[in-house]
Automatic annotation (TrEMBL):
Catalyzes the ADP transfer from ATP to D-glycero-beta-D-manno-heptose 1-phosphate, yielding ADP-D-glycero-beta-D-manno-heptose. One of its GO terms (molecular function) is heptose 7-phosphate kinase activity. It is an enzyme of class 2 (transferase). Its EC number is 2.7.1.167, 2.7.7.70. This is Bifunctional protein HldE. Pfam families: CTP_transf_like, PfkB. The active site is at 265. ATP binds at residues 197-200. Pathway: Nucleotide-sugar biosynthesis; ADP-L-glycero-beta-D-manno-heptose biosynthesis; ADP-L-glycero-beta-D-manno-heptose from D-glycero-beta-D-manno-heptose 7-phosphate: step 1/4; Nucleotide-sugar biosynthesis; ADP-L-glycero-beta-D-manno-heptose biosynthesis; ADP-L-glycero-beta-D-manno-heptose from D-glycero-beta-D-manno-heptose 7-phosphate: step 3/4. NCBIfam families: cyt_tran_rel (TIGR00125), rfaE_dom_I (TIGR02198), rfaE_dom_II (TIGR02199). Residues 1-319 are annotated as: Ribokinase. In the N-terminal section; belongs to the carbohydrate kinase PfkB family. It catalyses: D-glycero-beta-D-manno-heptose 7-phosphate + ATP = D-glycero-beta-D-manno-heptose 1,7-bisphosphate + ADP + H(+); D-glycero-beta-D-manno-heptose 1-phosphate + ATP + H(+) = ADP-D-glycero-beta-D-manno-heptose + diphosphate. The gene is waaE.
Length: 477
């Protein structure tokens, strides 16, 4: 994957809400009525609706603004505090005095949702609020790479407002991506793309999507009726289907699904982020599929960092070997993330001059000790000091690339120093692995790692022996 290193400016307009959870246990029925009695032990609150799109964008490193309409109530204050925590300005949150800010409360007993109750207003916003949104948009439109309309049908994105937003955006060459709601998509006409799921697309087009032909028909229907640049339908575990001039289905990368909550928010946020990094739509959807693969492997509405997405792609073996070769700064950041994620890091090092079966088996055993195997490779200058002026046979870039292509190796780092101590100090591995010939010797970095593992080499397999056989023109036994 191309590294996405830009921080695009993206505006989100839509229905903000709070997802509120009451967590507890239940071991009796009420004597007052045949209902469960839940002993609530904790509660939590997170941004929901358009707020989850904001969370995803912030996590990816986007510069984000939001425009919405809320009430003048305690829930609104709670919502502002949650936005402040992720450093999003609340200056364009428009207050309607008699409006209830949306809050959805879920009662969870023993990991099962027992009840949900909502407190909210779903009436269309007032004309005064509509005009304030348009004025705020007009004054800042030129700064944005794209606009996401996150429609949850709570009254913010009225038909008139939505049409005006798209008109202003198109006049300023700003892409509008829409997470649609309802059956009538006419108010989204002129958007860059919509992101309905299969069920929503069936309802909006009245086309029963059951095979490729009906899928193409539905995509064309949306593209023509809504005048989209790209027509898109998310297909859950089957990936994302797009139609620009032809049908393309980008497969999903989810390996193990725990929870699909918020995956749609992740998809639209990731597409906008990737487009803001100058990727085309197909590459953007590839990126979004990876991000969705990360979040569905988590419990609850979740987000995916760039490092998690890159790591996930690497784990799927769909990245090239070069992307597994890291600098000191890059491996420091990755290691910190792996520690935070609870991953067990294994480190080993060596010259790995002429790679042979002994090396491969050694590294396979090393990887078995943890989740992430990082290999430190001696730079050419370091090898000469250790092995003499005729070594290495292969230069450091070639050696690193070959190591990075091995299934057992997650990351490779080249170090110039005589020992990898500085590198080990940055990585702070849980497990340090060395060859069996280090038995009883002091090993560099042993004081940093939690444990040391010694792995016996395959008898007769060594770079030195290989070089001697080549020099002596000996046949391989």
């Amino acid at each position: 994957m191309i590294k996405l290193d830009k921080n695009p400016n993206i505006l989100v307009i839509g229905d903000l809400m709070i997802d509120h959870y009451l967590w507890g246990s239940c071991d009796r029925i009420s004597p007052e009525a045949p209902v469960q009695v839940v002993n609530v032990k904790k509660e939590s609150a997170v941004l929901g609706g358009a707020g989850n799109v904001l969370n995803n964008l912030v996590t990816l490193g986007t510069n984000v603004d939001v425009i919405s309409v809320i009430g003048n109530d305690s829930v609104a204050n709670e919502l502002k505090n949650l936005l402040n925590k992720i450093e999003i300005s609340t200056s364009n949150l428009i207050i309607e005095q008699d409006r209830k800010t949306s809050k959805k409360s879920r009662l969870i007993a023993s990991q099962q949702q027992v009840l949900r109750y909502d407190m909210e207003s779903i009436d269309d916003i007032k004309e005064e609020s509509l005009n304030k949104i348009l004025n705020a948009l007009k004054s800042t439109i030129k700064k944005y790479n794209s606009i996401i309309l996150s429609d949850y049908g709570k009254g913010v994105l009225t038909t008139e407002l939505t049409r005006q937003i798209i008109k202003i955006a198109n006049e300023n060459l700003v892409k509008v991506l829409v997470d649609p709601k309802g059956k009538d998509y006419s108010k989204y006409k002129g958007a860059f793309t919509l992101t309905p799921n299969k069920k929503e697309a069936i309802e909006a087009t009245n086309i029963n999507i059951k095979d490729e032909d009906s899928l193409v028909k539905a995509l064309k229907n949306l593209k023509e009726k809504c005048d989209l640049e790209v027509s898109l339908i998310t297909l859950s575990e089957n990936g994302i289907a797009i139609f620009d001039n032809e049908l393309t289905i980008k497969p999903t990368f989810a390996r193990e699904v725990y929870d699909v909550t918020g995956a749609g928010d992740t998809v639209i946020a990731s597409i906008a982020f990737a487009l803001g990094n100058d990727l085309n739509i197909k590459d953007s959807i590839y990126f979004a599929n990876l991000a969705a693969g990360v979040v569905v492997g988590k419990i609850g509405s979740a987000t995916a960092t760039l490092d998690e997405i890159y790591e996930y792609e690497s784990s799927l073996h769909k990245s090239n070997s070069t992307s597994h070769i890291k600098t000191f700064d890059e491996i420091t950041k990755l290691s910190k993330k792996f520690h935070e994620m609870g991953k067990k890091i294994v480190f080993t090092n060596g010259c790995f001059d002429i790679l042979h079966a002994g090396h491969a088996k050694y590294l396979e055993v090393a990887k078995s000790f943890g989740d992430i195997l990082i290999v430190g490779v001696n730079a050419d200058s370091s090898v000469k000091k250790l092995k003499g002026p005729t070594r290495p046979i292969n230069n450091q870039d070639d050696r690193a690339y070959i190591l990075a292509s091995l299934e057992s190796v997650d990351y490779v780092v080249i170090f110039e120093e005589e020992t990898p101590y500085e590198l080990i100090e940055l990585i702070k591995p849980h497990t340090l692995v060395k060859g069996g010939d280090y038995e009883g010797k002091d090993i560099v970095g042993q004081d940093i790692a939690n444990e040391l593992k010694l792995v016996q080499f395959v008898e007769g397999k060594s770079t030195t022996n290989t070089i001697k056989r080549i020099q002596n023109n000996e046949a391989i036994n």
